[in-house]
Amino acid sequence: MAEIKPKILMVSAEVNPLAKVGGLADVVQSLSSALKSKGYEVSIIMPKYGFIKKESNRLKKVKGGLKIKVGEKKEKVTIWQTSIKFSGVDVYLLENQKHFGKSKIYWGNESERFLFFSHAVLEILPFIGYKPDIIHCHDFHTALIPDLLRVTPDFYYKNIKSLYTIHNLNYQGKSDIGVLSTGNLSKTSLRSLSQDARDGDINFIVQGIINADAVNTVSPTYAHEITTPEFGMGLDKVIKKNKNKIQGILNGIDTDYFNPATDNNIVANYTSRNIIKKKENKLALQKELGLTRDKDVPLVGFISRLIKQKGLELLGEDIKKLDCQFVILGTGQKKYEKQIKKWSQQDLKRISAQLKFDASLAQRIYAGVDIYLLPSLFEPCGLGQMIAMRYGAVPVVRATGGLKDTVDKKVGFSFNKISETALQRKLQQALNIYRQKPSQWKRLQKNGMNRDFSWQKSAQDYIDLYYEL
Ligand code: GLC
């Protein structure tokens, strides 16, 4: 008998390019596209935030004037539809003024806003005419969908299974019990809720872990790390208890989009066979950023949200003494932005601070820099190091989570200790090889460029997991 392929529904707070803060958005987009190219039916539902413009995103109205019951009240919802460029994956956007009308993704009571979203997602399924076999939930925002599926008496949802992917354990959706009413739930709806409520609050991630049919996180090392108190962020006990249903599946990147051979954001295209052309991108980047133009001076890039997780505390004053140039691209916590801006102002020709979100500049930086730095304290997967390697930039990273799973001695440098000195020593070692052993450097670049970071394997791992549900 022919195997029936499961129909997948992705539910996420972020989807690239419609709404993005971090890697979650990229993964939902690129994994969905990879599944579709393997012949699977997949759709995505996300909130329609105020900044998502109807015209420029070609939104078509699917249904207006829907009323979603929340307790005694009713919330008005409109459903829009568009599709992801190139892959053509359908994206449904759920509009509700109260929770998602603002031009921001994260604000206010996020547990309440996203529980409403999760509840509404299930309610609108019959109206969009897409009945999935599996709902694939991402991060704490949608982690209560498995609870909702277990609670509903409606036959329509009876055979729908759920997979819950943890991209980041840091944001847990810890809230007071009252929040449950937004999803028409209460602490007596499920045993897991009454247990969770005993300490006075509800933790969305805990609910996802207990009630989803399967759980995964985004790299094998991180899946293991989070069973320990050091990385478990207070949840290591629950995670350990459920460890048999939690696996690690490494993220991929969109290797068609991130391709130095065809990328039209960069001045000179190249492959692993003519890496020398990367220098042209470096010179162009130095010019664009106002750095001293010099093809031989090593250029180090840091492209990331500027948050503690990414190891910004390890970038001490001394790092400026290293004989290289720096470019930092990203936005985040004000204290880091201020510090980086100050450094740059002290040495404009050598340190460039690009405190903004600019996807096209990011690609020019990957293509232009020699070294990509990511000294994260913890890193569920990390995408930047894979993009960097694809562009022949050699990564210098802390050996944790997905960084440990993707960067080895053949392609880059890693250090263990959380300390400024450990980072500086490693970076210095990389700089020495860059300057003194060019052929060894070239080998590192080539190895990185030739590694397969596509979704080929990981999308198949997800498919295997879907079949197990
Ligand atoms: C989160 C994690 C990052 C991961 C991304 C996509 O942003 O911090 O490590 O790569 O999600 O899964």
How does this model look, in words?
Helices cover 36% and strands 19% of the residues. The protein contains 17 helices and 17 strands. It has helices at 23-37, 97-100, 110-128, 145-151, 191-197, 204-211, 220-225, 229-232, 236-241, 278-289, 334-346, 359-368, 384-390, 401-406, 420-436, 438-450, 456-468, and strands at residues 8-11, 42-47, 60-70, 73-83, 90-95, 134-138, 161-166, 174-176, 201-203, 214-217, 246-248, 299-303, 325-329, 351-354, 371-374, 394-398, 413-415. A nine-stranded mixed beta sheet has the order 3-4-5-2-1-6-7-10-11, with helices on both faces. Strands 14-13-12-15-16-17 form a six-stranded parallel beta sheet, sandwiched between helices. Strands 8-9 form a two-stranded antiparallel ribbon. α10 crosses α12. The chain binds alpha-D-glucopyranose. Alpha-D-glucopyranose is lined by residues 22-24, 27, 167-168, 218, 251, 379-383, 402.
